[in-house]
Amino acid sequence: MNPSQFNNLETSGELLIDFGLQPVSNRFLAPDRSSKAPNFPLKLRLSKDSGLIHLAEPFPIEEMKPQYDWLTCFEPEAHLDDMVNTMINLPGINQNSKFGAYSFKDDSTLDRLRNKGYRNTWRIDPELDLGVYDKCANVETYQFSFTMNTTNAMKKKYGMADIFIIRHVVEHSYKLLEFLDAAKNLIHENGYIVWELPDCERALEMGDWTTIWEEHVFYFTSSTFKNLLLSSGFEIVHFESVPYLLENSLVAIVKLSKQFNPISVDSNELEKEIKRAYSFVENLNHRKKIIREKLEKIKKEKGSIAMFGAGHLSIAFLSIADIADLIDYVIDDNQNKKGLLMPINDLEIVGSEVLYTKDIRFCLLSLNPQNQPKVIKNHEKFISNGGTFASIFPGGDKDLLVL
């Protein structure tokens, strides 16, 4: 793999699929708004020498910044105790070691370290260290200011880290090589970086297009991320894919390679990644067609269709498949979202009481699969009244296409 190819995403590899214009998925609108949600071209490209899939042209940073300070994100954490135990047992690490971290996504990891007596910790301050003063800004903005210049200042302020933690950020990077170099700049020669990021392998294999999000520039698998690390001057100390229902989490602990030699991607692995990418498009197109046909039939037989969950997963599901016209209600019990409009088809977000006050007998679940059983349990009355819940995600027992 030659990582320098990702300096120009528009020309890296070949066009894999063009989704046309897609909305900024965090742009929830007030009913009396005077503007519409912005739309930008969304295309995926495939690097033929690595198998890595990425956006052809990321959306403008200033447009992706959330408009509300209550918008946030949640990353999987059930594995963090084990991850912390792995970290503190690395060679050279002791209770005097210095642990640095990238963002609020790492706070719970730092808490676990401090609870174990590892109290020499610090975390990047978006305002003071990155010059990001907008309280609504998130990692989509932070990554653009994470450079050699800003990390040089951090080194003077905090000192070199023995371990630097970056959870669920590298996939957002617009300038991948610069981001990797900036991370290297914060550890000493025997230090470690702990990377965590989504494992897209299962979604790609199943044609699940909800994995595509304008905030994620890169769509890594175990193979493509390992090859990126090795090609970028890292030695991999620990690597695993932690299983979760929605998507697994890749955890990689690396240190700087003492003798960096360019590597070539295993031809069998490369063939597998390229085949997976092509199959993703085929499965996606097939699944889109079947889902529209099934929802049209359900709407004809059962009437109104609701969708439970107003987030980027539901927006991707509706927009990429061009099926928002089949949805009558979008449900979300987040009080901040109620009454706002989705950035697609001006669908109003309403509370779950509509399951009982409106004539609804079919409801799609676009929540993280680990949260779906709770919703189903809370709304057993909807089911006893003749209602049906179905998941938008492939593979589970609630999969829309297996009901």
Automatic annotation (TrEMBL):
Q: Which UniProt keywords apply?
A: Methyltransferase, Transferase
MF terms per GO, please? methyltransferase activity
Q: Reply yes or no: does the keyword Translocase apply.
A: no
Query: Does the record bear Transferase in its keywords?
Result: yes
Using the record's annotation, list all stretches that form the C-methyltransferase domain.
275-394
Per its UniProt record, what Gene3D superfamilies does this chain match? Methyltransferase, zinc-binding domain (6.20.50.110), NAD(P)-binding Rossmann-like Domain (3.40.50.720), Vaccinia Virus protein VP39 (3.40.50.150)
Q: Name one GO biological process term.
A: methylation
- Could you tell me what this protein is called? C-methyltransferase C-terminal domain protein
Origin organism is Leptospira noguchii serovar Panama str. CZ214
